[in-house]
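Researcher: I'd like a candidate sequence for this fold, 185 residues long. If you have to choose between options at a position, lean toward the conservative one.
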């Protein structure tokens, strides 16, 4: 698996190729020693398509429960976020209920985030900070369950998967203004 620097470089390259192709300029395949302009096959592109929508589209197979999440969190997350998500080097993940309208809002998973699927997506793509994308789907479901449990959103016996996670109702789900732009196909 490429490291983050290689992924970033590839993402910049793909964005540049996309921008050039939208202007109508073509890059000659034979003129480039880097294979610029070569179509990307679906299998290679799918490795980059790991985003998760609020409705759960993009969630991978797997599942995880609060107990397993507690163990993974202790081993991989607590060094930055504290033993129970209270914060440390990393942001706090719990607390902040009722503070959003105050002069000093505390924006945490439990007080601010509108969708539980966003938590899964963020953990899956960006955590742990020192080894992003190193957790399995089962570990990400488990850590998600644990963090949601710490915030009182799911019970201690919760097990989350692609079917149940999008159904989790976050406390601040209605705290955002809907996007007024028309939906795209």
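Model: Candidate sequence:
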């Amino acid at each position: 698996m490429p490291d983050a620097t290689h992924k970033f470089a590839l993402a910049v390259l793909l964005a540049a190729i996309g921008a050039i192709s939208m202007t109508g300029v073509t890059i000659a395949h034979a003129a480039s020693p880097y294979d610029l302009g070569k179509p990307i096959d679906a299998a290679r592109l799918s490795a980059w398509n790991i985003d998760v929508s609020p409705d759960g589209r993009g969630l991978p197979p797997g599942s995880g429960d609060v107990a397993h999440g507690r163990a993974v969190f202790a081993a991989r997350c607590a060094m930055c976020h504290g033993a129970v998500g209270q914060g440390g080097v990393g942001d706090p993940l719990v607390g902040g209920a009722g503070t959003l309208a105050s002069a000093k809002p505390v924006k945490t998973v439990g007080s601010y985030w509108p969708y539980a699927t966003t938590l899964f997506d963020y953990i899956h793509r960006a955590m742990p900070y020192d080894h992003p994308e190193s957790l399995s789907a089962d570990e990400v479901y488990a850590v998600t369950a644990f963090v949601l449990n710490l915030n009182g959103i799911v019970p201690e016996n919760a097990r989350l998967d692609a079917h149940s996670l999008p159904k989790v109702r976050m406390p601040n789900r209605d705290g955002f203004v809907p996007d007024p732009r028309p939906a795209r196909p």
